[in-house]
Structures are given as structure tokens and as C-alpha cells.
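Service request form, structural biology core

Requester: graduate student, group of Dr. S.
Request type: structure prediction, single chain
Budget code: on file
Notes: please return the result as C-alpha cells.

Sequence provided:
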Amino acid sequence: MSIIQLQNLKKRFGDNEVLHGIDLSVNKSEVVVLMGPSGSGKSTLLRCLTFLEEPTDGMIRIGKQTLKAGEKLDRKRKSEIRELRKSTGFVFQQFNLFPHKTAIENVMEGPLVVKGATKEDAREIAKTLLEKVGLGDRQNHYPSQLSGGQQQRVAIARALSMHPSVMLYDEPTSALDPELVREVLQVMKNLAQEGMTMVVVTHEMKFAKDVADRVIFMDGGVVVEEGSPEEIFNHPKEERTKRFLAMVVEE
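Core staff response, request fulfilled:
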């Protein structure tokens, strides 16, 4: 059974329709990579999943929580959106860590504020997760004392602290120097191997080839083509997909 289900998802900014009726399902433990040129709607799609952007039309289901676009933002709907967000972990391009809090304090924030955990329990959760992402010896460091790759790994640990059923990544390595990319991708690979459901917007082709169960190529706000990494990278059917992959290889 799918853990994510989208039906006819549309998003318009003024007169500009960015998403043109996306239908998508993601199964439990599946890793789906979204690829495509800038402006194709990948990041907007990801943000609509958690209502960081309000969809213009369509339906989103994550786990047991279903929301339709365009409904009145009353107390009930706000509660539904909060519940939907609790089941997802979101990792952004920028790390968005609290600069005045240490790594462990950043990771503790969600369990403390959102889940109402005790300080002792939140600290134990954060300590375990920082060790999981290879930063057990950096837990008392402030973001300014960490490399970009380390900060992004703290951000991943922070997202995991909510025990999400789905992890969403919006180009998580695009702000990193090339030598720091590998350490973040390795953490993501480890999570995939553990069975975490993941939707990843990325231009890291090797990661997509090695880790994805399914690759979706988007352009112009629509799904142009989807398939296994083998199908998309070695036997693309659509001309737009072929042109994009040729440009990426040339770069």
C-alpha cells in the first residue's frame, strides 16, 4: 500500500501554473528521486506535500492523513496540517539550524516543543541520532563550529527526531562544497538501506542510480517520464529526458 498518494495536484502562483495535475504514489520503504531542470516544479511539489505551499487543487495523503486543496484554514484544518507534518521529515537546501543552539540542542527542539518529551528523553533521542549520522563527538558544537556537511547531517538528525514515516529532501547537497557532498549522501544511503521511505529532489546522478527505486523526470510542471534508474538513465523514452541527461553528462 502506498504511504504517499497525490491526485491531480496543481499549484499556481498568480497566473503561472507551476504544477499541472500531478498524480503520484510512493510505497513504504521506496526511494523516489525527482529530477529535472530548474523551474520544472520539483521543489514546489515537495513543499506542497507538507503544505509549506498550499496547493491550488488536488488531494494529498500521507499515511492516514488526507487533505484536499483549497479548503478553509480553520482550527480543524490547521490541526490536520500539523498531524501531516509530524509524519514527515523535511531537509532543506539550507540547513536552517538555530545558530545559538548546539547540535544536540537543535535536534532536541522537535521532541521537546512538538512532541512534549521530557528534557532527559529528548537529549537521549538527540544523542542517539547524532551518533547515527556520525556526529556523536560534535554534539556540543555550535553550527558555526561545524562544516556545511556536518550542519546538514545535524539537520537530518533533527528531521529524524520526529520519528517520521517519510523523509523529504530538497536538494540537500546543493549548498555544499563537492568534498562534503559524499558524507551527507552516505547518511541518506544508510537510511534508505534501513527502509526509510524517501522522496529526494537532487541532481546527484550517482546517488539516483545507486539508491533510487524509481526516478521521476519532471519538466514544465508535469511528470514527463518515470521508471527504474536502469530505464531512465540507460533507456529513456522521451526526447526531453534524453536532452536533460545529455546536458547533465556534459557538465
